[in-house]
Amino acid sequence: MPRSHWLDPLARRVLQATGQLPPARSSATSNNALARPEPALPSNWFLDVNRGSQQQWRELPGCTDDMADLLVRLQRGGVQFAAADDLFRLLDLPTDLAQLWAPHLVFNWYGDAPLQPVRSCIDVNNASSEELTSLAWPDQRIHGLLRERRLRGFRDLADLQERLCLPASSVEALIGRVSFGQRRAGPSLPPRG
Fold first, then answer.
1. Burial environment of residue 158 by CB neighbours within 10 A (0 to 12, 13 to 18, 19 or more)
2. Which of 37, 62, 79, 84 is positioned for an S-S bond with 74, CB 3.0–4.6 A?
3. Largest Cα–Cα distance of the chain, in whole Å?
4. pTM, rounded to two decimals
């Protein structure tokens, strides 16, 4: 078994002091921790989902920089979430994290009433033009989507909004209805004659 580097204990203490690693626990403490996990957030800590900053999102256990960035980009684009299920589907959040986050999330709606979700899911990067018509978009917008995805697939909902210049209401209507799979090779549009 290789010996650990001399810097390992010092680096570990520095990372623990800055909060990037959990604090060291004695074996007695770690046995108790396995029996009943400590709450990651104070019970009185809440996040307004539709107004949260990137720093506030990062306070949620398991929230990555990419997740926080996506949510803030959508927020800047005027997108709001009406319910936890929409948020959890968008982030593809595991059930255990969703249960941990749920008591701390507040869904205040700013402006008109939210749209009711529709339960069919379309892979925006691979759907045929016929499948995309179920989005109830004008033909011009669907052709714009097809043109943009030929250049490169969409990463996420915020990328779709930014590249197609979609209004917030259109993006909100897509939450839970679209996914962003890897772009498969093949033509998106029929050849022009």
1. buried
2. 79
3. 75
4. 0.52
